[in-house]
Amino acid sequence: MAVEGDPGSLVKVAHVLLLAASWGMQCWVTFVAGFVMIRGVPRHTFGLVQSKLFPFYGHIVLCFSFLNLAIYATYHPRELLTTTETVQIALFFVSLLLSALNARWFSPATTSAMFEMQAVEREHGLGAEIGLSANIEGYKRLREKDPKYQALRKSFFRYHGISSLCNMVTLLCNGANLVFTALLLPSI
């Protein structure tokens, strides 16, 4: 029969630090960094910065999700899981699954579509403006006259939407696990 083990102080601290670091990084990237950059740098520069940062961000979230699930599962045998622990391990698993999909598929697909869009925009003298509301008419005219650009834009927004959804669900899973961890501190 499986017995739940005491993870020890070092493992508990590592687990909480990994979970908090992942959630904090996700909050910063999701709610602060992008909004600050889009208001302060040209659109294509913003895209370039995002394309360099997101692979690291996605793989760090993936790594932290794996480590959090591994630590939690090691000290919570399946046979002894309470309902709360079952929910928590499921949240860790969902976080791992979605961060893997995002890091390995959706984020690279978004970046690829963005670079193709930017190439077309450069041909039409677009992309150097700062902020989303600058030169809206220029982008609208480009969408209306260039079906290739319209298709790229549609692809970009589809992948960007799915990537954002994965990121938000992962953020919520990690946030919920932080709440569970705080409420159940003695039994991490």
The quaternary organization reads as: single chain
The tally of structural domains comes to 1
Largest sheet descriptor: none
Calculate the terminal CA-CA distance, rounded to whole Å: 21 Å
In helices, the fraction of residues equals over 70%
Order of helices and strands: HHHHH
Instruction: Using the alpha-carbon principal axes, give the shape.
Output: elongated
Query: Regions with pLDDT < 50 over 5+ consecutive residues?
Result: none
The percent range for strand residues is: under 5%
Structural class: mainly alpha
Average pLDDT for all residues: 92
The total beta strand count reads 0
Please, how many helices?
A: 5
Q: What Rg, in angstroms, do the CA atoms define?
A: 21 Å
